[in-house]
């Protein structure tokens, strides 16, 4: 009864939202900005966050901005003015952000790449290759702290894994704040034409009663692209053609303490372990890059946030964080994730070439992997793992040719196992954009796998398979509605050992349609009810998965985001039994204030399948998070997740994750961070638990010139059957030190 009452409340809320919505009248879309000429500066620019240097006097001015959210290309609530110029070494951008009440500016001290929508910031999208396919995204907040990444217009992905060398400064004053960018031409990739034509879009994030977005170009509500709306920048002449060189050697030292005679015995400290390595980047031309790494340090300074993995059928995904893999990272972003560089576990050395010739972009990466990780073994009903107990050579290549706003491409991945065995994947892909409201995307892949003879795992010991994978989708987006359809077919023996494709052996048809409402003068400014239909079958025609679900999404005051998905009688094949489950997924997120910038809650409630026992129970999953800033230098993040499943009125398991992350910033480059993470699943005798604690001091002059000093404490939860209790026993304790310095020329 409780399950259906939640569903009834959802449908009732959907009906009320539908009936009370005030429709926004269609207005003619403003014309996009025309080409903007950029003049070379005639004076010096000192990077101090102020825009009063003589070098800004003849800079190109961009002073027309549009409120694109929650408004529809309206006049912005506050004034923003941008300035653009350059000299023989640097490209400069200055932005003035007026504010009627500077005390409300959200300007926390955060770590690099942690400048997000909860706070005031400027984002500059820069397309230096003039293809309007992808853009560098360079952010700065009122403290001068940076965040950078790549925005991919093909799928709307915003990836903050890549890092770039550039300098920023910002200053808050009695009338608002201002920021300056100084971007070396050596950090940019562009062709050999003279003069150059680039594209730029400037976005001001202004979180107050709503999260306002002000763009320097109008963005149509029915548009399915962002980079396509950028300003052309013309007249860039005499830019340097080559010569960028970066060498970043590192040195690490660490000491590990482990139990001398098994868990529960005193810890024994090993000798201090030292290591060294080198990353090199060279640009033979301004549009081509060569990366080389020797014995790279791929330690992750901040551990991944834990995810509940109990009662999960498929492998979980973690993002890439390691610098060597991030040049031209957007080229790996294909319809199917055939390239997932975290499968390269322990490279001894690597080389990578990335660049563009005319309308064709390419990247080729080759590494020697010492192994030590796991290989995903995908299947139609779940994925398993085999130990990567072998040395191998990994190659990933990708080429993409632009055809206006469309493209064609191809990808190759190849893992050659030392001693015999391989996994090779090859195939084309394309995207066709006939209009700004339609896109057709497809990819076909062929895999050839010969398992590693002599491997300790039976799953990878001997045998040879060839198979295929195909996916396609059509997306259509209008101001008042949107829809998409997709079809996929992955062969039973398809493998992508250098990718992340955890399910194979199925055919799938999926369709979704949504209606769009934009109420005026309301707490909710965007409402989208939707219907989704999805069906998977194996290659014998058996239904693997089937659902028809009702969705609801809304966006409103203080960045309030509400999402609900009601799934009645979802069918799942478990073993040879088809089981049904009815449940709802609900998400609420809001950014209340400067001191409480974000709170979120996710709930899954209703029936849930026990996949190990092939039966249906009643389960609930709750994930909550909050960010608290008592003042601008102190950042506290709380994460908690709890999931339980009852079968036949008996608790099968309860899984809990609790994590706190406290960070104090001494400046915009120096901080100390403390993390405590506790994971527990009952019954402990079956699943166990752990505790991870760490303290880190970090100083970052830039993303490759860094100093880290840290301490870590790992413990494992065990059941003491004699005393009928549980104990956290020390697993290891570590001290570490790292220094890296980037030599630039």
Q: Can you describe this structure?
A:
- With 745 residues, the chain is mainly beta.
- Among the domains are: 31-236, Immunoglobulin-like; 287-505, no CATH class.
- The chain is 3% helix and 56% strand.
- The protein contains 1 helix and 42 strands.
- It has a 24-stranded antiparallel β-barrel.
- Strand 12 and strand 13 (211-215) form a beta hairpin.
- The protein is globular.
- Mean pLDDT is 87; it is low at 1-27 and 300-304.
The secondary-structure class comes to mainly beta
- Strand percent estimate: over 45%
Radius of gyration: 27 Å
Unreliable spans: 1-27, 300-304
Fraction of helical residues:
under 10%
Number of helices: 1
Question: Could you tell me the mean pLDDT?
Answer: 87
Count of DSSP strands:
42
Give the N-to-C terminal Cα separation. Answer: 69 Å
Shape by Cα distribution: globular
Biggest β-sheet, characterized?
Answer: 24 strands, antiparallel, barrel
SSE blueprint and pairings:
Elements: H1 2-20, E1 36-37, E2 60-62, E3 66-69, E4 80-86, E5 90-98, E6 121-127, E7 134-140, E8 146-152, E9 157-159, E10 167-173, E11 176-184, E12 196-207, E13 211-215, E14 231-236, E15 244-259, E16 267-269, E17 273-285, E18 288-294, E19 347-357, E20 360-369, E21 374-377, E22 384-387, E23 392-403, E24 406-417, E25 422-435, E26 438-450, E27 464-477, E28 481-490, E29 506-515, E30 524-537, E31 543-556, E32 561-574, E33 577-590, E34 598-610, E35 615-631, E36 634-647, E37 650-665, E38 670-682, E39 688-700, E40 706-720, E41 725-740, E42 743-744
Parallel strand pairs: 1-14
Antiparallel strand pairs: 2-4, 3-13, 4-5, 5-11, 6-7, 6-12, 7-8, 8-9, 10-11, 12-13, 12-14, 15-16, 15-17, 15-41, 15-42, 17-18, 18-19, 19-20, 20-23, 21-22, 23-24, 24-25, 25-26, 26-27, 27-28, 28-29, 29-30, 30-31, 31-32, 32-33, 33-34, 34-35, 35-36, 36-37, 37-38, 38-39, 39-40, 40-41
């Amino acid at each position: 009864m409780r399950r259906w009452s939640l569903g009834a409340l959802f449908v009732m809320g959907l009906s009320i939202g539908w009936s009370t919505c005030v429709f926004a009248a269609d207005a003619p879309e403003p014309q996009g900005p025309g080409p903007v000429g950029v003049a070379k500066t005639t004076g010096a620019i000192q990077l101090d966050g102020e825009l009063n240097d003589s070098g800004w006097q003849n800079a190109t001015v961009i002073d027309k901005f549009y409120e694109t959210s929650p408004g529809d290309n309206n006049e912005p609530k506050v004034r923003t003015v941008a300035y653009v110029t350059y000299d023989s070494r640097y490209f400069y951008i200055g932005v003035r952000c007026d504010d009627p009440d500077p005390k409300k500016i959200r300007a926390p001290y955060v770590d690099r790449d942690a400048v997000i929508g909860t706070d005031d910031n400027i984002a500059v999208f820069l397309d230096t290759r003039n293809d309007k396919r992808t853009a560098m995204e360079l952010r700065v907040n009122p403290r001068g702290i940076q965040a950078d990444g790549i925005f991919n217009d093909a799928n709307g992905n915003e990836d903050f894994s890549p890092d770039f060398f550039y300098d920023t400064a910002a200053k808050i004053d009695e009338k608002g704040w201002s920021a300056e960018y100084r971007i070396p031409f050596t950090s940019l990739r562009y062709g050999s034409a003279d003069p150059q034509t680039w594209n730029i879009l400037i976005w001001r994030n202004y979180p107050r009663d709503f999260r306002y977005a002000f763009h320097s170009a109008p963005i149509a509500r029915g548009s399915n692209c962002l980079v396509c709306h950028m300003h052309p920048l013309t007249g860039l002449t005499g830019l340097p053609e080559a010569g960028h060189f970066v060498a970043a050697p590192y040195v690490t030292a660490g000491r590990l303490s482990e139990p001398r005679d098994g868990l529960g015995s005193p810890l024994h400290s090993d000798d201090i372990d030292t290591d060294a390595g080198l990353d090199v980047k060279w640009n033979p031309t301004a549009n081509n890059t060569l990366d080389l790494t020797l014995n790279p340090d791929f330690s992750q300074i901040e551990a991944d946030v834990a995810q509940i993995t109990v009662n999960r059928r498929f492998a979980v995904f973690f993002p890439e964080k390691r610098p060597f893999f991030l040049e031209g990272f957007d080229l790996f972003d294909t319809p199917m994730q055939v390239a997932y560089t975290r499968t390269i576990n322990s490279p001894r050395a690597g080389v990578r070439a990335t660049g563009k010739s005319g309308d064709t972009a390419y990247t080729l990466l080759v590494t020697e992997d010492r192994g030590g990780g796991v290989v995903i073994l995908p299947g139609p009903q779940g994925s398993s793992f085999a130990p990567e107990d072998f040395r191998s050579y990994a190659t990933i290549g990708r080429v993409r040719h632009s055809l206006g706003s469309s493209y064609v491409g191809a990808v190759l991945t190849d893992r050659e196992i030392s001693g015999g065995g391989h996994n090779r994947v090859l195939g084309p892909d394309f995207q066709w954009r006939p209009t700004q409201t339609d896109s057709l995307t497809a990819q076909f892949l062929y895999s050839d796998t010969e398992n590693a003879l002599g491997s300790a795992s039976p799953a990878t010991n001997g045998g040879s398979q060839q198979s295929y994978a195909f996916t396609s989708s059509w997306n259509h987006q209008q101001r008042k509605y949107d829809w998409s359809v997709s079809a996929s077919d992955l062969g039973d023996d398809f493998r992508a050992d250098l990718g992340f494709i955890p399910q194979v052996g199925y055919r799938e048809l999926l369709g979704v349609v949504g209606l769009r409402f934009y109420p005026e003068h309301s707490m909710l400014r965007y409402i989208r009810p939707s219907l989704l239909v999805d069906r998977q079958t194996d290659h014998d025609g058996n239904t693997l998965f089937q659902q028809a679900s009702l969705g609801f999404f809304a966006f409103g005051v203080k960045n309030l985001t509400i999402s609900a998905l009601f799934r009645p009688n979802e069918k799942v094949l478990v073993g040879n039994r088809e089981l049904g489950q009815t449940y709802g997924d609900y998400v609420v997120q809001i950014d209340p204030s400067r001191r409480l910038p974000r709170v979120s809650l996710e709930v899954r409630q209703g029936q849930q399948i026990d996949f190990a026992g092939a039966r249906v129970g009643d389960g609930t999953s709750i994930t909550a998070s909050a960010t608290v800033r008592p003042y601008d230098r102190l950042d506290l993040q709380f994460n908690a997740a709890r999931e339980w499943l009852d079968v036949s009125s008996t608790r099968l398991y309860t899984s809990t994750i609790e994590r706190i992350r406290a960070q104090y910033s001494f400046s915009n480059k120096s901080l100390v961070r403390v993390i405590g993470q506790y994971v527990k699943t009952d019954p402990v005798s079956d699943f166990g638990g752990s505790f991870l604690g760490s303290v880190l001091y970090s100083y970052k002059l830039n993303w490759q010139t860094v100093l880290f000093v840290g301490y870590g404490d790992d413990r494992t939860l065990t059941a003491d059957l004699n005393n009928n209790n549980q104990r956290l026993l020390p697993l290891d304790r570590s001290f570490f030190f790292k220094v890296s310095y980037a030599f630039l020329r």
